[in-house]
Amino acid sequence: MSESLIQQRADIQGLATAILLPSVSVFGDPIERQSGVAGPLTHVVGIGLFQRAVLTLQRAGIRQLIVLAGPEEEQLKQSLGRGPRVTIPVRWMPIREFPLDDPRTWDAMAAEVHGFCLIASVRGVFSRPLIESLRRDVQDGQAFVVAQPVGRQSIGEQLVPVTVQADRLLALGSARGAAAEFVAADLLVVPASLMRFRRTPDSTEETIPIRQWIERAALDGRVRVVRTDRHPAEWYQGVRTQADVPVAERRLFSSLKGEFEGFVDRYFNRKLSRWFTRVFLVLGLSPNVITMIATVVGLLAAAGFGIGTYSAGILAAALFQLAAVIDCCDGEVARLTFTESPFGAWLDIAMDNVVHMAIFGGIAVGAYQRVAAQDEAWIPLALGVAAIVGNALSFLLVNRAQKIKQASGWKTPVHAAWSDFMLKNVASRDFSVVVLLFALLGKLEWFLWMAAAGSIVFAALMVWVIRPSAISRA
Questions:
Q1: Range of 383's domain?
Q2: Which of 151, 153, 362, 396 has its C-alpha lying 20 to 30 A from 296's C-alpha?
Q3: What CA–CA distance (Å, rounded) separates 40 from 27?
Q4: What is the mean predicted confidence (pLDDT) over 268-294?
């Protein structure tokens, strides 16, 4: 059986469908339309809550979306038409035609679900890894309720406390249960069989039957609680009022992290890049434009190194560090606005290498000017050429390694592990601080020795890593 067919069957039987409720919470509370209350069109980092939810679900592997829309249906449709493209099918079901308290509405939606269904209101921001975790962990007959720690927030009328024991839901507590440690997020997963459960005659106060489904399944021990405080990448941040928007934006920024990061990136560059990212978002600059801005700053730094004076070297090193900070921003903007692309990833790596080779050349020219009248003046130029050639070879070999990785063509797990290690180090911007240190010491020529040796050794290691896999694929 082919891998694609196996994946299609897994999607059908697993969690591939989501239902969004822009007008109510998943437990039936209406979303009030008044000043200070956040709605589905409220912007968080430049994207409305509804649009951000749809794009996050799409990136996490959801293949079908059903929207039970209220009076804002046309506005929601228009919001999806702007910005990144929504590629999954979206079925619009107006609640005026499909009342939420009518069992036939949920029977119709259950018929669209094969396996499990994710149900969410548009009252928060959540991470892609959280949805991927839910898709990965679904089990026959089990429902999932996402729960947040209460923390310092008070439990208002629209928050539902949960009682948990060994990751199983015991009860959905009263909205005034101030002693609860966790509250339910507006995000849960239910099996299709549970959606066909009929409401009992005495449950008339509920707008929609979801809470009754969960309570009945909890009695049978079939509701698992997914806590968002256990894995930093699997988070949910409620956005119920305008005051929650800055909190959600800080949560989004704090979650930004590249696939490969060094020590300086994590603890220095990322701290500064978020301020630049906010400016670039306000200006509406695309990730590729930001990449080119970082490239221009890096080339200016290379030109400064070429002057050869001590003060010019320090200024150039500072510019190079600024380029490294701005270089973090293109990926941050891409992830925040869902505008990642294979070309953008390639452009980022390619321009990084252009800047690095220019930096090596600039330092070599500057070092040559300082010793031009001496017999060994050729040494810095030779070192610069070696560093540039080694960097160029490394870039070509890294591209080859990425193609092998995408094709899962590594010959042995050892070569796969070495490849990940090498890719992590080639993407690191940590050496910008090393350049600054040598500039302050007035010993940039020492950096040339390290750059020349390091780039050639790196290229040689990459040849050793990819050659067996390249031969086996051929």
A1: 256-473
A2: 396
A3: 17
A4: 92
Specify the CATH number for the domain of residue 286: 1.20.120.1760
Query: Could you give the CA distance from residue 329 to residue 344 in angstroms, rounded to a whole number?
Result: 12
Q: Looking at the domain assignment, is residue 164 inside a domain? A: yes
* 250 falls within a domain: no
Do 298 and 266 fall into the same domain?
A: yes
CA distance 62 to 31: 25
Question: Which of 243, 266, 296 is where one domain is finished?
Answer: 243
Q: Is residue 315 part of a domain?
A: yes
Query: What single letter denotes the amino acid at residue 256?
Result: L
Tell me how far CA of residue 81 lies from CA of 54, 78, 453, in angstroms. Answer: 12, 5, 51
Residues 298 and 157 in one domain: no
Distance of CA 68 to the CA centre of its chain: 27
CATH number, domain with residue 15: 3.90.550.10
The Cα–Cα gap between 352 and 358 comes to 10
At 85, the amino acid letter reads R
Tell me, yes or no, whether 303 and 335 share the same domain: yes
Backbone φ and ψ for 343, nearest 5 degrees, come out as -65, -40
Which tops the pLDDT comparison, 354 or 12?
A: 354
DSSP 30: B
Final residue in a domain of this structure, among 243, 277, 309: 243
Query: Are residues 196 and 228 both part of a single domain?
Result: yes
* Tokens at 466, concatenated: 């990819």
pLDDT in tens, 112-166: 888 899 999 998 999 999 999 999 988 888 999 999 887 645 444 467 888 888 8
* Token pair belonging to 175: 């909205």
Q: What's the pTM?
A: 0.81
Determine the longest span between alpha carbons in the chain, in angstroms: 98
- Distance, in Å, from the CA atom of 322 to the CA atom of 344, rounded to the nearest integer, reads 20
Same domain, 355 and 376: yes
Asked if pLDDT for residue 434 goes beyond 80, the answer is yes
3-state helix, strand, coil in the chain (%, to 5): 55, 15, 30
As beta bridge partners, residue 172 has 162
**Alpha carbons 3 and 12: distance in angstroms, whole number:** 14
- Mean pLDDT across the chain: 83
d(CA 350, CA 327): 12
Q: Work out how many domains the chain is built from and give that number.
A: 2
The answer to whether 67 and 93 have CB atoms below 8 angstroms apart is yes
Q: Do residues 89 and 165 make contact, with C-beta atoms less than 8 angstroms apart?
A: no
Contacts of 214 (CB under 8 A, 6+ apart): 143, 145, 169, 172, 188, 190, 223
How far is it, in rounded angstroms, from Cα 118 to Cα 133?
Answer: 12
